[in-house]
Design brief:
86 residues; 67% helix
Length: 86
């Protein structure tokens, strides 16, 4: 068996470095931690929100026009192929 620098087998070394079990927090402590984390959140400014909303709307319109064009092209191609049938 190989040994590490502390002269322990790999299984013993792994057992020594295992994290101790954490104690579960109660509901009030959990809510306090949630509030503490929520204070760290950086919220967007009104200007950033407006710019992001406009970008989403513009990109949605571009995607709509793209898929409308693809649908129109496929529909036209299928109708043309079906019209060739005797």
């Amino acid at each position: 068996m190989t040994r590490n620098a502390k002269n322990k087998t790999p299984a013993q070394a792994k057992a020594d470095t295992a994290a101790p079990k954490k104690r579960r927090a109660g509901p009030f402590q959990y809510l306090a931690q949630v509030r503490q984390e929520a204070r760290k959140v950086t919220w967007t400014t009104r200007q950033e929100l407006i710019v992001s909303t406009i970008m989403v709307l513009v990109l949605s319109v571009i995607a709509m026009l793209f898929f409308w064009g693809v649908d129109l092209g496929i529909r036209t191609a299928v109708n043309f192929l079906l019209s060739l049938r005797p």
